[in-house]
Backbone:
C-alpha cells in the first residue's frame, strides 16, 4: 500500500498532464483539472508524510536497467521535505497561474499547464529518488520540461534565454554530474542513497574533493557561481514560471540534491574530515556576497529577485558544506523558508506586472496604496529574505549562523552578516518606495489589485511564511529524522 | 592428308583475310569506311577459319559447334556493324566522301 | 631477377590494380570511373585465376585424355565475382545515364557546379 | 527442420524477390510479398533464437558437400543477434514502405523498389548467416547492389550522384574484401571461416597475412563508413527514399560491423588482430575522431536526414571504440550498441520519413512547428533523440554505460569523458530539431499538414517502444551480447 | 603447326585492332575495333582449342561470341542514351 | 509456327552445347531457360514486328548462293582497295537508293543483304528509300539499279506467298 503511494505521487501529475491535454479547448475544465490534480497530489504526499512519521520507509523499485542500476524510489525525511514544499506550493502556484495567465491573455496556455504538471512530476521524482541514477533521470526531466515554460513567450529574447538555460543545465549535468555518478557506481557498485554515505570507505583525500566538486558544480540548478548564469537568463519566463523555478521545483531540486548528496552519498563525517572541501564552501560564500552585490545593481524587479535567489541558494549549499548538524538543519529549513518567501515575492512581482505592466523597481513609487494586499505580502517576503521576525527566514538564518559558529567557520559568520546587510539594502528601498514615495509620472491611471486568484495565492504564501516562523515543529521533526 | 592440306589452305587464307581487314581499319580514312574493312574479317575470314577447323574434326559434334560459331558470327557481325553505323549516323557523325587519294588522307 | 619474373602474374595484377584505382580516383568522368572500377576488379579476378594454376595442369574441363587440371575452385568463385562485377557495371552505367538525363553532364565538376547553383538560387 | 532454418531465413526473401518481379504490375502485391517474407524471416529468426538459447550451434551445409568445400551456414549467438536485428527492423519498417515511398519513388519504379528491398534484405541476412568467406562477399554485393538501386530511387536528383559515389566506394571496398579473401585462400586453401580460424594461427606472422588483414580492414571500413572512409554515407542516407534510409541506417552498417568483428575475432583471431597487428591503435583514433568530429559536423546540417546520417557515422564510431578497447566488456558494448543503434536510428529515420511524407522535405526550415501539426510523429522523434543522447531508461543509455565501463576497465577515464562530451553534442543537435519542431513558428504554408497515417505511425511507435523496452529490460540484450563476446574471446 | 601460325596471325589482327581502339578518334572507331578484337578472340579460342587438343574450348568460343555481341550492342545502346558523343571523347 | 521454330532451335542449341542428355537436373534447367527465352521473345514480339532475313534466306537457296558469291566478290574488291590504295583509291559515297520492294519484309531483306556484303552498309530506311554508305562509288551505283535490288524484288513475291501459306 505504501509503495503504491509513491507510485500514486508520480502518476497523479502525469494523469493531470494528460487530462490537461484532453481539456485543451475548454479553459475552465483545464484549470479545474490542474487544481484538482495538485490537490490530489498534496493529499497523497501528506499521506506519505504521515506514514514516514509513523516510522515506515516506503520504497519502490520499478525496474533494473543494468545490474546495480535501478529506477528506484525511497522516501526519506529530506526528500519528504522537498516533496512537501513542492506539493504545497503547486496548488497555490496553480491558483496564481490562473489569475496571471488569464490576466495577461497569454497564448499556449494548455502547453503551459501541461509542462507545469510534467515539471512537478520531475520534482516529485527527484524528491523520492532512491539512488543517483533515478535522481539524475528526473533532474533532467525537470530541466527539459521547464524549457517550454521558460521560452513561453516565444520571442527571440525568450529563445536565447531558453538556450542559455538549457545549455548550462544540460551541459553541467551531463558533463559533471553524470561522470560523478558513474564514478560513484564504479567505486561502490551501487548508486543507492545510504545513511552515512555510499562512498566513505572507498575514497579519501583529494579524491573526495574532486568528486564533491563534480557534484556541486554538476548540480547546476543549485546555482553556485560560476554556473549560476542560467537563472537570470530564465527571467524571460512568465512570473508563475519564475515562481516554479525559484521556489517550487527547480532551484530547490538543485540545492536539495546537493544536500542529499552530501548527507547520503558522502556522509557528513567524510566530508567534514576533508579540509580541502572548504574550498567548495568558499565558492558558496563568494556566491552569497557576489550575487547580493549584483542584485543591488538591478533595476528590473525580477532580475533583482533572481540574483537574490542565487545568493539565497548558496546559503543552503553553505549550510550543507559547513558539515555540522546545526548547519544542515539550517540548510533544510532554509530550503522551505526561501521557497515560501521567494514565491511570495515573485507572485507580487507578477501581480504588479499583470495589473500595471510595470517591471522596473524605479517605477514602483507609491504602488503600495494601489495594491495594498500585494505589497503587504511582498513586505513579508522581503522580511523573510533579510531574516527578520516574524518571517521564517529568521529561523533558518539563525540555525545557519549557529552552525557556522559551532564549526568555527568565522568567515561564514562574517558572510552571513554582510549578506544580511546587502539583503536589507536591496529590499528595503523597494518597500520604502512603495509606501512612502509619491508616484508622479504614472501614465497607467487606472489599475488596482491583480485578479483575485493571484491575490489569494500571494496572501496565502505570505501567511505560510509567517506560519512557518511560529510553527516550525513539523519541519524540525523531519530534520531530526535525517540526523538519526 | 588432303584434309590437312585443306586445313592449311583455309587457315592461311583466313589469316591473310584477317590481317587484311585489320590493316584496313588502320588505313581507311574515316569510321564508315573502316566498317567495311572490318566486315571482311567478319564474313570471309571467319568462314575460312571455321572451314579449316572442320576439316580437322570431320563429322562430329565439334563440327556442329564450329558451324554454330560461324553462324553466330555471321549473324552478329553485320548486325553489330549496322548498329554501329546507325548509332554513328544518328549521332550526326558525317561520312567522308569523294575520291580519297593518299594526299587527302595525309591531310586528314 | 628470376624470382621477380616468376611472380610476374602478381606484377600484372598490381599494375592493373593501380591503373584501375588511379582511373577511379583521378578521372572526373563518371563513365571512366566505372571503367576504372572494372579494371580494378579484373585485376583481382586475374589474381584469383593465376593462383589456381597448377603446373602442367590443363583447363579444368573433365576429359579422359588428361589427369592434371588447374584448381577449379577459383574459377568458380571468379565466375560469380564476374557476374557481380557485370551487375555493378550495368547498374553504374544506368546511373550514369540517368545522371546525364538529370544534369546534362557526366563530368564530376559540372555536376557539382549544377548542384551548388541550385542551392544558390534557392 | 531446425537445421534448415539458417538457409530458410535467407532463402525466403531471396525467392520472394523474383515472385515480386513477376507481379511487377502491381506495387501493392509486391508490398504484400515483401512484408510477409520479412515477417516469415523474423519468425524463423525467433525460432532460431529459442533453439539456440536451449541448445547449441545451428549448422546447415549446402549441397551435401562437407564444410571445407561446401558452403556452410552457421548460426551462433553473434550472428543470431545480427539476424534478429535485421529481420526485426525489416518486419517493423517494411509495412510502412509502400505508403511512405509512394510520393518519393516514381510509380514505374515501385515494383522494382520492392524487388530491390527484398534482395537487400536477403543479402544482409546472408552476410550474417554464412560461414563461408567468399559467400560473404557475394551476399555483401547482393545487398550493396540493391542498396545502390534503392538509393538512386530518391526524389532529388542528387540521389543519383549519391548512389553513384556509394557504388564506387562500395565496390572498391568489396573488391578489397575479395582480395583479402583471395590471399587467405592462397595461404590456407580454404574459404570456410571455421577452417580458416583453425589454419591461420599455424602460419605465424606472414607478410601476406598482414596484407590480407590490411585489405580487410580498409574494405570493411569502407562498407561500414569508418571515419575517414564515411564520405559516401551522408548523401546516400540523405537522398535515399526516406523509408529506405530508415531500413539501411538501421541495418546495413550494423551488418558491416558484424563482418568486421567476424574477421577480427573469428577469422584472424583476437591474438593476431590485437597482439600482433595492434589494430586497436588504428581503430582507437579513428573511432574517437568519428565520435567527436562527425558529431560536430552534424550540428551544422540543415537537413534532418543528413544530420542523422552524420550522427550514424558517430554512432558507428562507438561500436568501433568498443572493439578498440580490446576487452570483453568493450566487445559486448559494441554488440549491444549494434543492436541498440538499429532501434534508435530506425525510429528516428522512420519518424523523419513520416514528416517527409506529409511535408515533402526534411529541410529544417520546412519542419518548423511540426510538433504541433504532427504531435505523435514529433514525440517519437524526441523519444528517439533521447535514446541517441543516452538518457537512462532508453537503449542509448545501456550502450553508453557499457562503453564507459569498458573504458574504465582499461583505466581510460578520458575515454569515458569523450563519450560524455559526444553525448552533450548529441543533446545539442537533437535539441536543435526539437526546438524547431516545437518552439518555432511555422511558416505560413498553404497545405495543411496532418498527422502521419497509421501505417507509418504504428511502426514508428513500435520502434520507439522497443527503445524503451530494451532500455528498461536491458538484460535481454546484454546477456545475449555478453554471451557472444565471451564466445569470441574464447576463440581468441 | 598451322594452328600456331593461325593463332599468331589472329594475335596480329587483334594487335592492329587494339591500335585502332587506342587511336580512335571517335567512340565508334573504338567500339568497332573492340568488336573486331572480340570476334577474333572467338576464333582464337577455337584455334587454341585445336592447338592444345582440347576441342571443348569451342563451348567457350560460342559463349564468347554471344557475350561479345551483347556487349557491343549494350555499349552502343549506352552511347546512344548518353546522346552526344562528346561526353566520352577525349578530354 | 514462329514459337515452334524458336523452341525447336533453342532446344537443339541447348542439347548440342550441354552434352548432357540424361541428367534430369540439367535438362530441367534447360527447359526453364528455353521457357524463359521464349517468354521474353513473345514479349518482344508484342511490341515490335520483327522481320529477320535469315530464316527466309534459308528457304531460298538460289538467292542465298548468289548472295554468297556476291559476298566473296565484294570481299575481294575491298581487299584490293586495302592493299593497293595508291592505284585504287577508295571513293566513299553516301546515297539514298530507291527500293524496288514494296513490303517491309522485302525491304528488310534488301537492307540486310546490303549490309552483309562488304563494301556497302545500310544506315536506315527512309520511306521507300534506303540510305547506304559504300566504300566504292561503283558498288553503290550497282545497288541503285543492279542485280540485287531486282532479285530481292522478285523474291519478295515468293517470300510473301510462303509467309501467307504458313
Ligand atoms: Na559494391
Ligand atoms: Na557490309
Residues:
Amino acid at each position: 500500500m505504501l509503495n503504491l503511494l509513491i507510485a500514486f505521487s508520480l502518476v497523479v501529475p502525469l494523469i493531470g498532464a494528460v487530462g490537461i491535454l484532453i481539456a485543451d479547448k475548454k479553459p475552465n475544465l483545464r484549470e479545474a483539472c490542474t487544481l484538482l490534480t495538485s490537490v490530489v497530489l498534496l493529499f497523497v504526499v501528506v499521506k506519505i508524510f504521515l506514514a514516514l512519521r509513523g516510522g515506515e520507509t516506503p520504497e519502490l523499485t520499478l525496474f533494473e536497467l543494468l545490474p546495480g542500476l535501478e529506477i528506484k524510489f525511497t522516501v526519506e525525511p529530506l526528500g519528504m521535505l522537498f516533496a512537501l514544499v513542492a506539493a504545497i506550493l503547486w496548488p497555490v502556484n496553480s491558483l496564481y497561474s490562473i489569475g496571471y495567465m488569464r490576466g495577461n491573455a497569454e497564448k499556449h496556455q494548455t502547453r503551459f499547464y501541461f509542462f507545469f504538471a510534467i515539471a512537478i512530476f520531475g520534482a516529485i521524482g527527484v524528491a523520492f529518488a532512491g539512488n543517483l541514477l533515478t535522481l539524475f533521470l528526473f533532474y533532467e526531466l525537470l530541466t527539459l520540461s521547464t524549457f517550454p515554460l521558460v521560452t513561453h513567450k516565444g520571442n527571440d529574447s525568450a529563445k536565447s534565454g531558453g538556450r542559455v538555460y538549457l545549455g548550462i543545465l544540460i551541459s553541467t549535468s551531463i558533463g559533471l554530474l553524470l561522470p560523478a555518478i558513474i564514478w560513484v557506481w564504479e567505486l561502490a557498485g551501487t548508486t543507492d542513497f545510504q545513511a552515512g554515505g555510499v562512498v566513505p570507505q572507498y575514497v579519501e583525500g583529494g579524491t573526495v574533493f574532486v568528486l564533491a566538486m563534480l557534484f556541486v558544480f554538476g548540480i547546476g540548478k543549485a546555482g553556485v557561481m560560476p554556473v549560476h548564469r542560467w537563472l537570470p537568463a530564465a527571467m524571460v519566463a512568465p512570473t508563475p514560471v519564475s515562481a516554479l523555478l525559484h521556489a517550487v521545483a527547480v532551484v530547490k531540486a538543485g540545492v536539495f540534491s546537493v544536500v542529499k548528496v552530501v548527507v547520503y552519498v558522502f556522509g557528513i563525517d567524510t566530508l567534514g574530515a576533508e579540509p580541502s572541501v572548504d574550498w567548495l564552501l568558499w565558492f558558496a560564500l563568494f556566491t552569497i556576497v557576489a550575487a547580493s552585490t549584483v542584485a543591488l545593481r538591478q533595476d528590473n524587479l525580477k532580475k533583482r529577485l533572481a540574483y537574490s535567489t542565487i545568493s539565497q541558494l548558496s546559503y543552503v549549499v553553505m549550510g550543507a558544506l559547513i558539515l555540522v548538524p546545526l548547519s544542515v538543519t539550517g540548510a533544510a529549513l532554509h530550503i522551505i523558508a526561501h521557497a515560501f518567501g521567494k514565491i511570495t515575492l515573485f507572485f507580487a512581482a507578477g501581480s504588479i506586472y499583470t495589473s500595471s505592466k510595470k517591471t522596473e523597481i524605479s517605477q514602483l513609487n507609491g504602488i503600495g496604496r494601489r495594491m495594498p494586499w500585494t505589497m503587504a505580502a511582498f513586505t513579508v517576503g522581503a522580511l523573510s529574505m533579510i531574516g527578520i521576525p516574524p518571517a521564517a527566514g529568521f529561523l533558518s538564518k539563525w540555525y545557519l549562523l549557529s552552525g557556522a559558529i559551532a564549526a568555527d567557520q568565522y568567515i561564514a559568520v562574517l558572510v552571513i552578516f554582510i549578506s544580511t546587510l546587502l539583503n536589507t539594502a536591496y529590499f528595503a528601498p523597494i518597500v520604502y518606495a512603495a509606501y512612502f514615495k509619491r508616484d508622479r509620472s504614472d501614465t497607467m491611471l487606472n489599475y488596482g489589485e491583480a485578479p483575485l486568484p493571484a491575490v489569494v495565492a500571494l496572501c496565502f504564501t505570505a501567511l505560510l511564511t509567517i506560519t512557518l516562523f511560529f510553527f516550525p515543529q513539523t519541519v524540525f521533526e523531519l530534520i531530526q529524522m535525517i540526523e538519526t | 592428308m588432303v584434309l590437312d592440306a585443306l586445313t592449311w589452305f583455309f587457315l592461311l587464307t583466313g589469316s591473310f583475310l584477317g590481317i587484311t581487314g585489320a590493316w584496313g581499319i588502320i588505313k581507311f580514312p574515316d569510321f564508315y569506311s573502316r566498317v567495311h574493312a572490318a566486315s571482311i574479317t567478319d564474313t570471309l575470314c571467319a568462314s575460312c577459319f571455321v572451314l579449316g577447323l572442320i576439316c580437322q574434326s570431320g563429322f562430329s559434334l565439334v563440327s556442329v559447334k564450329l558451324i554454330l560459331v560461324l553462324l553466330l558470327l555471321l549473324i552478329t557481325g553485320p548486325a553489330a556493324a549496322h548498329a554501329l553505323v546507325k548509332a554513328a549516323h544518328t549521332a550526326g557523325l558525317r561520312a567522308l566522301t569523294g575520291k580519297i587519294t593518299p594526299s587527302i588522307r595525309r591531310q586528314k | 631477377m628470376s624470382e621477380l619474373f616468376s611472380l610476374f602474374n602478381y606484377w600484372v595484377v598490381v599494375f592493373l590494380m593501380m591503373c584501375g584505382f588511379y582511373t577511379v580516383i583521378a578521372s572526373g568522368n563518371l563513365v571512366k570511373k566505372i571503367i576504372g572500377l572494372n579494371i580494378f576488379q579484373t585485376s583481382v579476378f586475374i589474381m584469383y585465376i593465376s593462383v589456381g594454376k597448377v603446373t602442367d595442369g590443363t583447363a579444368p574441363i573433365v576429359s579422359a585424355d588428361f589427369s592434371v587440371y588447374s584448381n577449379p575452385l577459383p574459377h568458380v568463385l571468379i565466375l560469380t565475382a564476374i557476374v557481380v562485377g557485370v551487375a555493378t557495371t550495368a547498374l553504374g552505367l544506368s546511373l550514369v545515364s540517368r545522371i546525364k538525363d538529370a544534369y546534362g553532364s557526366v563530368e564530376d565538376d559540372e555536376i557539382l557546379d549544377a548542384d551548388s547553383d541550385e542551392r544558390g538560387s534557392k | 527442420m531446425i537445421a534448415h532454418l539458417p538457409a530458410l531465413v535467407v532463402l525466403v526473401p531471396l525467392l520472394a524477390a523474383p515472385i515480386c518481379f513477376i507481379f511487377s504490375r502491381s506495387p501493392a502485391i509486391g508490398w504484400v510479398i515483401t512484408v510477409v517474407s520479412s515477417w516469415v524471416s523474423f519468425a524463423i529468426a525467433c525460432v532460431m533464437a529459442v533453439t539456440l538459447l536451449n541448445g547449441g550451434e545451428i549448422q546447415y551445409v549446402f549441397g551435401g558437400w562437407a564444410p571445407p568445400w561446401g558452403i556452410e551456414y552457421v548460426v551462433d549467438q553473434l550472428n543470431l543477434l545480427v539476424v534478429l536485428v535485421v529481420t526485426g527492423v525489416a518486419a517493423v519498417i517494411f509495412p510502412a514502405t509502400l505508403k511512405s515511398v509512394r510520393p518519393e519513388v516514381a510509380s514505374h519504379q515501385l515494383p522494382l523498389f520492392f524487388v530491390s528491398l527484398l534482395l537487400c534484405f536477403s543479402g544482409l541476412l546472408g552476410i550474417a548467416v554464412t560461414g563461408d568467406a567468399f559467400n560473404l562477399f557475394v551476399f555483401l554485393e547482393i545487398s550493396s547492389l540493391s542498396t545502390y538501386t534503392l538509393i538512386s530511387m530518391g526524389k532529388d536528383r542528387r540521389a543519383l550522384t549519391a548512389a553513384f559515389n556509394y557504388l564506387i566506394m562500395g565496390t572498391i571496398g568489396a573488391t578489397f574484401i575479395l582480395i583479402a579473401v583471395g590471399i587467405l585462400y592462397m595461404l590456407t586453401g580454404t574459404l570456410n571461416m571455421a577452417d580458416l580460424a583453425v589454419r591461420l594461427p599455424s602460419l605465424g606472422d606472414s607478410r601476406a597475412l598482414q596484407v590480407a588483414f590490411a585489405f580487410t580492414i580498409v574494405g570493411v571500413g569502407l562498407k561500414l563508413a569508418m571515419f575517414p572512409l564515411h564520405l559516401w554515407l551522408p548523401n546516400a542516407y540523405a537522398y535515399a527514399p526516406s523509408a529506405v534510409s530508415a531500413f539501411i541506417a538501421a541495418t546495413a552498417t550494423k551488418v558491416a560491423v558484424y563482418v568486421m568483428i567476424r574477421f577480427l575475432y573469428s577469422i584472424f583471431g583476437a591474438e593476431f588482430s590485437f597482439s600482433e597487428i595492434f589494430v586497436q591503435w588504428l581503430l582507437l583514433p579513428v573511432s574517437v575522431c568519428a565520435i567527436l568530429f562527425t558529431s560536430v559536423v552534424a550540428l551544422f546540417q540543415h537537413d534532418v536526414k543528413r544530420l542523422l546520417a552524420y550522427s550514424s557515422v558517430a554512432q558507428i564510431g562507438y561500436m568501433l571504440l568498443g572493439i578498440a578497447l580490446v576487452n570483453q566488456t568493450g566487445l559486448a558494448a559494441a554488440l549491444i550498441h549494434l543492436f541498440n543503434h538499429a532501434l534508435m536510428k530506425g525510429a528516428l529515420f522512420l519518424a523523419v520519413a513520416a514528416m517527409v511524407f506529409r511535408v515533402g522535405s526534411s529541410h529544417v526550415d520546412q519542419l518548423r512547428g511540426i510538433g504541433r501539426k504532427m504531435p505523435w510523429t514529433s514525440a517519437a522523434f524526441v523519444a528517439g533523440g533521447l535514446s541517441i543522447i543516452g538518457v537512462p531508461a532508453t537503449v542509448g543509455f545501456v550502450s553508453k554505460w557499457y562503453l564507459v565501463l569498458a573504458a574504465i576497465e582499461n583505466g581510460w577515464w578520458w575515454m569515458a569523458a569523450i563519450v560524455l562530451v559526444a553525448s552533450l553534442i548529441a543533446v545539442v543537435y537533437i535539441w536543435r530539431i526539437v526546438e524547431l519542431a516545437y518552439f518555432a513558428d511555422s511558416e505560413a504554408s498553404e497545405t495543411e499538414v496532418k498527422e502521419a497515417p497509421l501505417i507509418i505511425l504504428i511502426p514508428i511507435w513500435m520502434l520507439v517502444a522497443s527503445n524503451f523496452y530494451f532500455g528498461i529490460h536491458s538484460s535481454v540484450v546484454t546477456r545475449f551480447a555478453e554471451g557472444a563476446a565471451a564466445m569470441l574471446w574464447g576463440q581468441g | 603447326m598451322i594452328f600456331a601460325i593461325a593463332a599468331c596471325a589472329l594475335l596480329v589482327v587483334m594487335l592492329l585492332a587494339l591500335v585502332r581502339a587506342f587511336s580512335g578518334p571517335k567512340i565508334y572507331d573504338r567500339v568497332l575495333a573492340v568488336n573486331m578484337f572480340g570476334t577474333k578472340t572467338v576464333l582464337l579460342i577455337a584455334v587454341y582449342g585445336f592447338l592444345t587438343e582440347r576441342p571443348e574450348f569451342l563451348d567457350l568460343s560460342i559463349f564468347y561470341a554471344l557475350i561479345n555481341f551483347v556487349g557491343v550492342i549494350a555499349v552502343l545502346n549506352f552511347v546512344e542514351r548518353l546522346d552526344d558523343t562528346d561526353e566520352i571523347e577525349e578530354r | 509456327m514462329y514459337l515452334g521454330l524458336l523452341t525447336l532451335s533453342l532446344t537443339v542449341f541447348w542439347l548440342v552445347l550441354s552434352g548432357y542428355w540424361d541428367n534430369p537436373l540439367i535438362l530441367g534447367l534447360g527447359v526453364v531457360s528455353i521457357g524463359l527465352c521464349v517468354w521474353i521473345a513473345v514479349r518482344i514480339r508484342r511490341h515490335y514486328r520483327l522481320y529477320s532475313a535469315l530464316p527466309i534466306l534459308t528457304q531460298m537457296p538460289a538467292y542465298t548462293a548468289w548472295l554468297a558469291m556476291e559476298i566473296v566478290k565484294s570481299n575481294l574488291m575491298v581487299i584490293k582497295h586495302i592493299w593497293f590504295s595508291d592505284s585504287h583509291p577508295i571513293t566513299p559515297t553516301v546515297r539514298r537508293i530507291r527500293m524496288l520492294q514494296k513490303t517491309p519484309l522485302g525491304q528488310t531483306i534488301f537492307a540486310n543483304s546490303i549490309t552483309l556484303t562488304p563494301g556497302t552498309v545500310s544506315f536506315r530506311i527512309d520511306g521507300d528509300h534506303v540510305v547506304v554508305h559504300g566504300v566504292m562509288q561503283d558498288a553503290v551505283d550497282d545497288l541503285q539499279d543492279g542485280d540485287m535490288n531486282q532479285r530481292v524484288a522478285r523474291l519478295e513475291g515468293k517470300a510473301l506467298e510462303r509467309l501467307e501459306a504458313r
Residues 87-91 of chain E have pLDDT under 50 and may be disordered. The two ends of chain E are 46 Å apart (CA to CA). Chain E touches chain C at residues 52-54, 56-57, 78, 81-83, 87-88, 91 (CB under 8 Å).
